[in-house]
Design goal:
There is one protein chain. By secondary structure, this protein is an all-beta fold. The two termini are 24 Å apart. The protein has a 5-stranded parallel barrel. The longest helix has 5 residues. The radius of gyration is 25 Å and the shape is globular.
Length: 306
C-alpha cells in the first residue's frame, strides 16, 4: 500500500551468496546490496504572474510583482515605476522604464503559446470541473444571444438562478458559486453603493465584462482545489475590467482574446495571475503575489537520486 503523502520510491536490492574461502572464517553467507531513490516533483501548469502570448503592456504609478516574473511573446512595455521579483521575458522587444526593476533580468525568450490551462467546456454541465464542484452551480443561456447576460450584484436587482440546471435568462442575480455562461456576460451592481463582493468562478464561452465605474470589485474563486487550481474568470474571448479598485484571488484567463484592466485607484491580489492572448493593464497601482496553486497541477517530474 502506497501512503497518500509519499513523495517518491526507494528501492534496495540485496543479493546473498555463499562464500568459499570467507566461509572458512565464518563469513557465510555474504551479501551485496544497492539502493536507488526516485523522487516525484509536482509542477504547476503556469509559472508567471502576468503572461501574454503576444504584447504585454503594464503602465502603473507603482507596479509590484512578487514571487514570479512576467512574459510577453512579442513586445513588453513596463512603466512607470515598480519591482518585479522574477524575470521580464519578451519575444521581440522590451521597453522598460528605469523606474521598473526586473530582479530576474531582461530575458529574450522563444515563443510560448498560451498554456492550455482550462477549456471553457470543462465548466459546462457534465464537464469535469462542473461535476467535481460541491457548491451551487449555475448554467445560464441568454434569451437574446446578441446581448450579454447581466449578472447583477444588487440583492433585489434580478431573478435568482436555479442551482444545478440550465435556464434561459438575460438578467440574473450574482450569487456565490460556479457559473457557466453561454455567450458573453457582464457583472455590475444596478443599485446601491456597496462593493461587488462574491465567491465565484465565472466561465463564459464569449467575453466577460466587469466595467462598473462606480463600484469596487472584491472577488475570490468558488472553485479552489490543489489539483484543479483556483480559476476566477475564464473567458472564451476577451476579459475587460474597469473599476476604481479591483481586488481578486485566483486566475484570470482569456483563452482567445485580450485582458484589459483599467483600475483608476489600483488593483491588488495576494494570490493571483493574469493570462491572455494580449494584456493591456493600467492604473494607479498593481500588486500581484503569484502562487502556482491557482493553476491546475501540471505533469509531475521524476528525478532519480543515486
Amino acid at each position: 500500500v502506497i501512503p497518500g503523502n509519499a513523495g517518491g520510491v526507494q528501492v534496495t536490492v540485496i543479493n546473498r551468496f555463499a562464500a568459499f574461502f570467507a566461509g572458512v572464517f565464518g563469513f557465510d553467507p555474504m551479501e551485496v546490496r544497492a539502493m536507488a531513490t526516485a523522487v516525484v516533483h509536482p509542477t504547476a501548469a503556469c509559472a508567471f504572474a502576468l503572461f501574454a502570448e503576444n504584447d504585454l503592456r503594464a503602465a502603473f504609478l507603482l507596479l509590484r510583482i512578487q514571487a514570479a516574473g512576467v512574459h510577453a511573446g512579442t513586445d513588453l512595455t513596463l512603466r512607470w515605476a515598480g519591482n518585479i521579483q522574477g524575470p521580464c521575458e519578451y519575444g521581440t522587444s522590451a521597453s522598460i522604464e528605469f523606474g521598473v526593476q526586473c530582479q530576474g533580468g531582461r530575458v529574450q525568450a522563444p515563443f510560448q503559446p498560451l498554456p492550455d490551462l482550462y477549456a471553457v467546456s470543462d465548466f459546462a454541465p457534465g464537464g469535469p470541473l462542473w461535476n467535481t464542484y460541491a457548491g451551487d452551480r449555475y448554467c445560464i443561456r441568454p434569451q437574446n444571444p446578441a446581448q450579454p447576460i447581466l449578472l447583477d450584484a444588487h440583492p433585489a436587482g434580478a431573478v435568482a438562478p436555479s442551482p444545478n440546471q440550465c435556464i434561459p435568462a438575460q438578467r440574473v442575480r450574482l450569487q456565490n458559486g460556479l457559473y457557466y455562461l453561454e455567450g458573453a456576460a457582464r457583472v455590475l451592481r444596478s443599485q446601491g453603493g456597496a462593493p461587488i463582493r462574491a465567491t465565484i468562478t465565472l466561465a463564459a464561452t464569449g467575453s466577460l465584462i466587469l466595467d462598473d465605474p462606480n463600484h469596487r470589485y472584491e472577488l475570490q474563486p468558488a472553485l479552489n482545489d490543489p489539483q484543479r487550481g483556483a480559476p476566477l474568470l475564464v473567458a472564451g474571448q476577451a476579459i475587460t475590467i474597469t473599476s476604481p479598485y479591483f481586488w481578486w484571488i485566483g486566475l484570470i484567463l482569456a483563452r482567445n482574446g485580450p485582458v484589459g484592466l483599467s483600475a483608476t485607484t489600483g488593483a491588488w491580489s495576494d494570490r493571483g495571475a493574469i493570462y491572455g492572448k494580449r494584456l493591456d493593464l493600467r492604473g494607479g497601482f498593481l500588486q500581484v503575489s503569484f502562487d502556482p496553486t491557482i493553476c491546475p497541477a501540471g505533469a509531475p517530474r521524476v528525478e532519480l537520486l543515486r
